Amino acid sequence: MKFYSFWRSLAAFRVRTALNLKGVVPDEIITIDLMKGEQCQPAYREVNPQMRLPALIDGDGPILFQSVAIMEYLDETRPEPPILPKDPRGRARVRALAAIHASDSHPLIVPRVRNFFEQELHLDEPTRMKWIRYWVGEGLAALEGHLARDEETGQFAHRDTVTMADICLVSHVAGAGFFNVDVAPYPTVKRIADTCMAMEAFAKAHPLRQPGAPASLSH
Which of 77, 107, 163, 217 has the smallest number of CB atoms closer than 10 Å to its CB? Predict the structure, then answer.
């Protein structure tokens, strides 16, 4: 198994966490430095023409990409411990909670978007940061609204077992830290994130514990 990763990639953080929860150790971890633009180089474009992280090669099949798809693949090929509930309604809820981060909020703040704002629209740094913090906050508020309301919320986002929803929630909170967005106004989100980060599978996957990471969490 080959895993293409970078310390700063929140999507790679999600997959690292899933791998840790499953007890899967890739044979090779290949760093693609997003800050140097290595994702745009021909060698990586052969791996993922979308030029995004992460990517996973597992055996002889097609290269896997997109973090949620990779996590679901891992759950189907390494079913223990599961990161999706067994019941259809539970799976739908977990996928929806995960999508608040992975599909709605995170894609709006990634480097390619920030670079477009800077290079093509010539927006200054305060304006770019206002955009980023707004969408991070919107995601936090949406998660808090669902989690605080739903009776299915337990120790974790869905009852008392870690699921893909928790992986995405923790990634969102890490992203909030990147941009100095306070998570205190979202107590349910913060409680679940703190509970998860006390687990080694999450802690080991954290961006600051990866090769090449800086001493503090900032972009």
Answer: 77
CA atoms within 13 A on the CB side of 205: 30
pLDDT class for 61, splitting at 50, 70, 90? Answer: confident
Domain-by-domain residue ranges, the chain?
A: 2-77, 88-209
CATH class of 2-77: alpha beta
Could you tell me the CA-to-CA distances from 19 to 2, 81, 108, 205 in Å, in that order? 12, 11, 25, 9
Fold of 88-209: Glutathione S-transferase Yfyf (Class Pi); Chain A, domain 2 (1.20.1050)
Mean pLDDT of 52-72: 96
- Cis peptide bond N-terminal to 107, omega within 30: no
Identify residue 132 by its one-letter amino acid code.
Answer: I
What is the amino acid identity at position 55? A
Say if CB 34 and CB 8 are below 8 A apart: yes
With b for 16 or more beta-carbon neighbours within 10 A and e for fewer, the 15-44 pattern comes to bbbbbbbbeeebeebbbbebeeebbeeeeb
Q: What is the rounded CA–CA span in Å between residue 86 and residue 97?
A: 16
* pLDDT per residue as tens digits for the range 176-186: 999 999 999 99
